[in-house]
C-alpha cells in the first residue's frame, strides 16, 4: 500500500484542518486529551502554543510520549477522514525559537504568527510534537483500500525515503 495515495490522503487531512486532539498521560497513567490549534512543518512536526502551566503542558514536560489525531468534523459519517500520529513532544527552548517560529504558524482562520518575544515571556510557550508513526483512516468503502471495515493504515506523509525530512534529524 506504499503507492503514495495513503500519504496524499494524510497530507490532505492535515492541510484542511487546524485543530488536533493531543493525547497526553497523567501521572497515574490516565489518558488526557486536549484540542489545540496547530501549525505543521513538513507533515512531521506539529506545533502549538500553550501556557507552560496548563495541564497538557505539564504532562508533556513530565512524560513526552504523546499521540494525536487530526480529523475533519465537517463531513458526513460516510466521508470520515482522519490522521492518527504518535511521537514525542517538547517545549521548544528559548534558544531554538528563532529557528522554529518561521515554520510553526499558519495564518489561517483568525490565527497569527507569534514572535520570539511573545514566546519567552511569562505567558506562552511553543511546543512541538514530532511524529514517529502516522496512520490514515481508510473507510471500509474506499474504492482502492476498502475492506468493508473502517481501519487505520500506515502512511508516511513527510518527505524522505527513510521518514526523515532531508536535511533534518
UniProtKB/TrEMBL annotation:
<feature type="region of interest" description="Disordered">
    <location>
        <begin position="139"/>
        <end position="169"/>
    </location>
</feature>
<protein>
    <submittedName>
        <fullName>Pyridoxamine 5'-phosphate oxidase family protein</fullName>
    </submittedName>
</protein>
<feature type="domain" description="Pyridoxamine 5'-phosphate oxidase N-terminal">
    <location>
        <begin position="10"/>
        <end position="117"/>
    </location>
</feature>
<dbReference type="Pfam" id="PF01243">
    <property type="entry name" value="PNPOx_N"/>
</dbReference>
<dbReference type="InterPro" id="IPR012349">
    <property type="entry name" value="Split_barrel_FMN-bd"/>
</dbReference>
<dbReference type="InterPro" id="IPR011576">
    <property type="entry name" value="Pyridox_Oxase_N"/>
</dbReference>
